[in-house]
Amino acid sequence: MFWTYLRRELRRRARQAAFIALGLALGIGLVITVTAAAAGVKQAQASVLHELYGVGTDLTITQPPRQGSGGGTSFGFQQQISQVRAGVKNGQIAAGTKISVNDLTSAQYGTLASAGLAAIRRQEHVTGVAGGLALTDVTVSGTVPALQSGSGTFSSNFTTSTFTVDGTDLTHLSLGPLSSATVTAGAGLRPADASADDALADSGYASANKLKVGSKVDIGGTSFTVIGIVAVPQGGSPPDLYIPLGRAQAIGKAGSASLKGDVNAVYVTADSAADIQAVQQEVSRLLPTATVTDASDLASEVTGSVGSAASLAGNLGTWLSVAVLVAAFTLAILLTMAAVARRVREFGTLKALGWSSGRIVAQVLGESVVMGIAGGAIGVGLGYAGAALIDKLAPQLSAATGSPPAATTAGPGIAGRLLQQVAAQGTHTVYVTLTAPVTLSAIGLAIALALAGGLLAGAFGGWRAARLRPAAALGRVE
Amino acid sequence: MYWLTGVTKEYRGRETVHALQGVDLMLGNGAWLAIQGPTGQGKSTLLQVMGGLDRPTTGSVQLDGHDLARMPEAVLTRVRARSIGFVFQAFNLIPTLNALENVAIALAPLHVRNGERLRRASDALAAVGLADRLRHVPAELSGGQQQRVAIARALVKDPAVLLADEPTGNLDEDTRDEIIGLLQSIWRERRFTMVIVTHDSAVARPAQLHGLMRDGFLTLTATPQVVGPVQPGTDAPAVSPELS
Fold first, then answer.
1. Do B54 and A471 lie within an 8 Å CB cutoff?
2. Helix pair angle (B114-127, B143-155), 10° resolution
3. What's the CA gap between B8 and B19, in Å, rounded?
4. Which stretch of DSSP H or E encloses residue A463?
5. Was domain B2-243 assigned CATH 3.40.50.300?
6. Is the pLDDT of residue A408 over 60?
7. B123 by DSSP, 3-state: which?
8. pTM for this one?
9. How many Å from the N-terminal Cα to the C-terminal Cα in chain A?
10. CA A376 to CA A22: how far, in whole Å?
11. Which chain B residue is nearest to residue A350, measuring alpha carbons?
12. In terms of Cα–Cα distance, which of A106, A203, A99 is closest to A158?
């Protein structure tokens, strides 16, 4: 009886039922579209981050330099001073003394023992951990000039060159700066190269320094062979050279200390985005002095149309969805209550026949829920159509990084260094195509909203029907 | 048995309306009472109070010893579902359901299985002469046929009481006579208590008891044919002499 009555009633009010269902469908379709667009923007941001920073990771952990370690100014000169002392005469460096300082140093970052990675790996929700060494090779060379008598001045002929080197963990190539790079010439580094003096050169650096596959490059006083040229797609600010982590640990220095067994950057991936915060807290607990940077920290530094799209989806889209949903729910409730008002005699008669208020409410609720489900089904279709429309019509989005405030606020972490490098090199722009993927959770949300809309409308309508006194309901007919 | 004592009903508004002003009535099982009176004198209100559709302001309405005036709503709903059948002037059929479904709907609260429900509804419609109209919706039926469906709906649950409010008010004279004849024949066959409210003397005439409603007061008189002592198991109604 319930279904027969429900079906016939909906057929009688087909127009109104369709109107309510379409109203709900519109709201739900919009929610799905906005959710899909937001997911698309998130993907675009992730893609931008990946391409601009080459960090295929959820968290990046760095350690500020220790007090007294020499900090950023030592550049390992202490080691070289002994060479210079040989040329000191009467407390002065003799004119004509040749000085050549070549040092591969972790001056900007404190170090972490590789063994500490195991502790991070043991944390819940951690799926991948890789260590790396972000190093700077500094070469200062020249000849000590003669003092000009009387003036006490001299003209310097020292030259300084620096380039960045990344010590890459070859057993975890999907994490760290090399993860987003593609080999454009030669070969990539493989786990078997862990102890080889092989290097990869970034295409930009290689081009500027006329490096090609087979070229020799001096890193920290050791000659490396360039076995491949890699490129980070569409710009970014990658390290100039990549070498195996083990070799970087052997050659590199932190002040005068060896980096053997140490890393200065740790890349971590979590089970899911939802777990990142928990992992971040755990890592902060394990390494209280470390700087833990997550993707959202980097995302906040992205500007351009990706940023605008993110803010559009996040703000306008959400509020528009909420507004349309509220309007659709209100419409459904009002129309259902109006329908109940028109059926007062019917419900009065049913009460006279011994139908309980609960049974009548269930009938009204059933009708509304069916309308809600129909609206939900149409809404999912509309949502897919909206997402498809975004896929088809959305313009290419751009994202830029490197604005001075971003670099300033990025702090001393790897992200900060990368941002500072980008800032120093000017604004970098990446273009991405916006897609709007409809996820299962979005469909689940749509179904929940459809049911909620139906239940809400039915509850109000049913409440009104249940309140009717049978005599009053029948009396209204007369 | 119906036993109404001191039943009053007031509607409070800008001006309080005293629809019932102390109605006393004792009506034995199987009696047929016709209440007449001009419009607005409290006839329909009395019927609603007797049917548990409304509660009196004061007084008690006992049906087989249970006071409908003080019953919890859920119990009262069950009493309406099992024991009381209603027939309305405007038929009050559900427009989207066919005749069979309109009758079967009265059995829905009694948890009768679907097959049994349809069988009983079909029998009830056959009893009112509509065996060939089972699948017709109300719009496809004449006024008389619609009222027959309404009578079948009221009687399908085999109630102890049938309350009819102006059952022929919307019908022409010929159809009116048909409906009254039908009610009379079914009442004779089944012996339920029947109360009909009407302002039409032709409808009231076959009843055993006649009541007159005026200004919220009920004056009850027995018809000449049934005056006499209560005769359980016969057509004679139980009516207390002091109320006649």
1. yes
2. 130
3. 7
4. helix A440-467
5. yes
6. no
7. helix
8. 0.60
9. 28
10. 9
11. B106
12. A99
